[in-house]
Amino acid sequence: MKLIRTLILLGGLFILALAFGFIFRLPFALGIWPWEDGRYSYLFVGSILAAVSAAALWIGWSGELGALPAGSLNVFVISLTTAVYFFHLNAQGRAGLLAFALASVLMALASAAAFLWSRTLPLTASPPTPPLVKVSFWVFSIVLLLVGGMMVLRLPVFPWNLNPDTSVVFGCIFLGDAFYFLYSLYRPVWRNALGQLLSFLAYDLVLIFPFIGLIGTVEPGRMLNLVVYLAVLVYSGALAVYYLFLHPQTRFGS
Questions:
Q1: Gap between the Cα atoms of 35 and 20, Å rounded
Q2: Which residues have CB under 8 Å from 133's CB, separation 6+?
Q3: Measured between alpha carbons, how far is 91 from 89 in angstroms, rounded to an integer?
């Protein structure tokens, strides 16, 4: 188990490096994105990678391997759906995307194996997931499924114009994230919800200030999208800060 924890920690650090690469648009990170994109799209990718790294680093550091299934399921759904889309684009003549399709398949297989291996591992004894967190996770899951489906259909959801292909990939990410929260509801104990809140907090910290800066430049027709997105970021961030650092029964060190 010590070797697995070390590998998870190293993986979390590697993903964190990629997150910074996308946030600051560094060539080593942008080179692994399948097409040229815009600043805020790269920032969103960085926020997702930061969220993944936060959960991975916590699991590796704490040894809470029983929390692995939720993240593995998340990655599996994202990898499977993006693989289908990349194969679809390849069949349309975009041969350069075959490598991304195959990489997604490998990631789906690896995450499926991780899920099947880890789903029987015990979690450290902890209180039940607090009621407000459970209700919030239900809401997050439903919203992510709805918004993810809309983005796969290339409907305008984000507060900036998305490359149509990017919209589909981001939609797949949202669909995977929905399963991340749903699994925590399937096993509703605090140690299984902690990783999701850590992930959300990292995601929020990356996006909230740049999104506030968008207020003065966003297209008028997308202002409502931005306001709703900011409201989600503020609420989820406040929820994470309260239960991770303030609530007597769930804060770190309690």
A1: 19
A2: 193, 197, 239, 243
A3: 5
Q: Which residues of the chain have pLDDT under 70?
A: none
Cα-trace Rg, the chain: 18
Judge whether 240 and 198 are in contact, CB under 8 Å.
yes
Half-sphere exposure of 171 (CA within 13 A, CB side): 22
Token duo for residue 73: 């399921």
Tokens 């297209």 sit on residue:
219
**For residue 111, how many other CB atoms are within 10 A of its CB?**
22
Side chain identity, residue 164: P
Predicted pLDDT of residue 124: 87
Q: What sign for the dihedral angle of Cα 103, 105, 111, 114?
A: negative
Q: What is the DSSP string of 90-135?
A: HHTT-GGGHHHHHHHHHHHHHHHHHHHHHTTSPPPP-PBPPHHHHH
For residue 125, the tally of other CB atoms under 10 A from its CB is 8
Q: What is the DSSP letter of 250?
A: T
What is 140-190 written as a DSSP string? HHHHHHHHHHHHHTT---SSSPPPHHHHHHHHHHHHHHHHHHHHHHHS-BH
Give me the amino acid identity at 13.
Answer: L
Domain boundaries, the chain: 2-246
Q: How many CA atoms lie within 13 A of 3 on its CB side?
A: 0
Q: How far apart are CA 126 and CA 201, in angstroms?
A: 21
Asked whether the whole model's pTM tops 0.85, one would answer yes
DSSP string over 198-233: HHHHHHHHHHHHHHHHGGGTS-GGGHHHHHHHHHHH
